Amino acid sequence: MRHRNALLEALELFRDIYPGITIGNMIAFLYVCENEGLTILDLAQVTGFYLATASRTIRAFLEPEAEGVLSPELGLIKIAQSPRGKTIHLTAAGRRFCAELQAIIAEARPITSATIRAA
User: Fold this and answer.
1) Which domains does the chain have, with CATH numbers?
2) What is the share, in percent, of the chain residues with pLDDT greater than 70?
3) Taking the CA of residue 82 as centre, how many other CA atoms within 13 Å lie in the half-sphere pointing to its CB?
């Protein structure tokens, strides 16, 4: 028995709402959802991105008026100064979107061999 592919459904939602988003962008956002307060260096290490790639990726998620923002200016992430340096946090919109993704994944229903034959 396996679960319907809730992860793919969540990624499709991401792509539907934010056309042109890359898998790398999605991965970075999901890491921030799970680990708010990461630094750019932390993000680079957990994703395997180069530091410059991690920085560019996060800047695409900033709000349009944020310093250093890059297109597409998604408004899901903000950067705050902390004793550890610049840390990455979700905006209110980022929290809502993260919750929506988590709900899709949490609702995964088992797929049994009978379900597969019926399809």
Assistant:
1) 2-118 (1.10.10.10)
2) 87
3) 13
